[in-house]
Every structure is written in C-alpha cells, then in structure tokens.
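Supplementary Methods, section 5.1.

A reviewer requested that the exact input to the structure prediction be made available. We therefore reproduce it here, unchanged from the version used in the analyses.
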Amino acid sequence: MDEATLAIVRDELKRRDDDYEAATGIKSSREIIARDAEWEATYQRLKHAELALAEALRKPGGCARYIPRRRRFCASRAADGCDGFCSLHAPSLGDRQISAPGREHRVKPMEASTSAPGEEAGDGTSSQGTAAAADNRRKTNIHRRMKKMTNPMAAPHRVPVAAPNWPDVYKDTNLPTFIDVGCAKGRFLQRAASVDRKAFEAAHGRHNLLGLEIYPPIVEDANLWTRTHDVDGEPTDEGAVGADSIGNLHFVACNANVSLAGMRVPSARMVSVLFPDPWSRRKHAGRRVVTAQFVDTLADILTQGARVYCCSDVRPLAAEMQALFLAKQDSFAIDEETFVRCGEMKEHKPETSAASPAPGRIGGVTGDGGFEHVFPAHQYQWQGPNAGATETNEENAEEGSFLSGAAAPRWLAANPTGVPTERDLVCESKWRQVYRFTVRRL
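The structure derived from this sequence is encoded token-by-token as follows.
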C-alpha cells in the first residue's frame, strides 16, 4: 500500500470516527471499533499497511522494535548480542532506565544542622550562615550534562583517599569485586546491581560492585541511590535492610590512578574502563585514564585470571589502551575466552561525510576520520603520547604514534558485560561504532 492509498484509508477511518461521535456524542475507542467488523477490518488494514511501510523504510542493521505510536521502527542501531534489538529494547535487558534519587531523599545542608537557627557555632559564626555558605559552594545541577571534564592532574585529585571499611559497605566481602574506573553517575553499575543483575550475573557470576569516580558530588548521589533503591531498582526508604536491599554496590570519590593501588580492594577479579575521556591533544596525554603506570597498578592488584575490559567510541584511544596492556607482555594478554564468547568484530570503512571540519579540529560525522563531541578537549585531532610523532586522526589511528609497528588491534563484536552503559545507548542512537577488548592477567 502506497502513501496515497494510506491517505484514503485514514480518511475513511476519520469519517467513521466523526459519524460515530455525531450520532452518539461519544468519541470512538479501540473497544468501540472492535465491535464493528467492517470498521475493525479497515483499522487493521491501516495498521498492517503502516507496519509494512515502516519495514520497507527500516535501515538495515537497525533495531527490530516497532513503535506503533510513531509508525516506525526504533531509529537506533541494533546492539551486537541483543538479537536484533538495541540495548534499550532488548528483551533480555531491563526495560526501565535508572533514575536519580527522588527529592524526598535529599537533605539540604541547612536542614542537616543540629543547631537552632541563629545559634552560633564553635567558631563564632552562626550555624545558619555556615550551612548557607556550604549550600552555595555545592554544585546542584549534577544531573545535567557535564560541560567540562575534570582535570585529574589538579592538586586536589593527586592526594590518595582512604579506603572504606569494606565490611561496612558490602554484605559479603568474600565475593569477588568488579571495579568500574571512571563510573560517572554510576548508571552502569546500578543496572548491574538491579534491573539487569540477572544478565550480568549470568555472564560473570555474583560480584561486589565498586565504582570509582573523580567528581565527588555525583559519587554522593550514586551512593544515595544505592541506599534508597532495592534490587529491582524500585525506590525504598533510605537505609532499608532486608533480602531485597542492595548490599553489593558502593561508590568512592577518588582519582583511580592515584588511589587504587592503596585501596586494598578485596578479591578484585574484574576491572572496566568504559568510554574514558579521550583528552585528544598530546599535551593532555597524561590525563588519560589508561597509562603505563595505571597498567602497572592493575598488574599489582589483580591475580592470575582476572580480566580488564575497556571500550571507547574513539578508535585511536581504544587502540592506545589495548597497546598499553599488551606492551606488558609478562602481565596481560588478549582474553581469548571472551573473544570466543562474544565474537570478533570485522572492521569496515564507513562512508565519510562531505562536510569538511575546520583545520586542526574534528567536527560533524566523518566516519572513522572524525568523532562528534562538544567538550573542548575532545575537539582536536588525535595525537599520540609520543612528543616527536606527527598528528594523526581516527582514519590513521596508528600512524605516527607509539603504536607504529605493533600488531593490529582486535575488537570484540559484542558487549561482554551484558549490561549497556549510557554511552552505549548514545552510540547506538548515533550509529557510532564502539571498539571493545578484554585482556586477562597472566
């Protein structure tokens, strides 16, 4: 059925709707339509035709979820390993998104004070004034998109933080620990502990989940979420205990490159570095999460057989991370078991955009030669850490960098954790390739 015929059928249904409302004074509904065989047949003819037209227009490789209200299929790319669906609509994953804690769980600094209004604190200032000043200093729009990356080289982030008392944060410290480095708002681990825990535990077994993030306000909010939700992701009273409470999830505000070595995480068996800030310019290479020193730290804290999973939608960054791990040949190697389980991605060259980015910067969608970001530190052509190397871009990821002469990187065909991150969903919606790999501690 073409568009012209569809318009005729829609006009016929509208005429029936108008006639029924004029005769009865009641608007038609699905129940009313179903009572009239001819009317129902016309309605079903329209819906089948809309579905067929949507199927004809569906982009190859797209999500198989049909959205009747919009009369089209989901516009996101189908995720590998999700049976033709995107991560948002995969039947094997939770169909609810993790939301921030409700306002009823938040206490402003002024409300937390035990002094009466106007009563002086020990330093001679009023408690009300102190609380107001603290409230003014605290960033409150933490649920909005962060507009600037945190510089890990800043002085406050170069001081190691004390490790928590692990029995206080985990119900069972005998479980192995999964560490997510740079967890941001913690949505990935929150899903793994609640709405997608079955998918995660089917792939890896039960773990204690530890998120490390450099920006303290969102860490506080992530821990608040843990205290106010159950294992199904449903809101509960803060601090509620019981079989349904989340007892295997905790977040720590720290610079992982500085603090992880001294945290003595119990039974660390898995580490993930998911979509780290690329810090594309060479002068910022020291700010990248995965460095040679960080690989040494992981080699020290991980036991034989432990895995490290990394991914990025910036190909040269993913290649750099893989090369850093494989350069330490006595400690890490490609995890062949995970590659067998998830498959190996065969790279292809996407079509490049006709748009020309400004010299020295990347803009628009330019295939492997460009990536679309808004952060200032993301907007430059990729530069390897070697100061004597020439600048490169994503199209020639290895050229001129320390990767020259190294074996070609290998990529997983699917997400080995079974749980999508927020960035995974963004990449699927923008049809951006994600480059993933897993290494094993030897």
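The first strand starts at residue 66 and ends at 67. These observations are discussed further in the main text.
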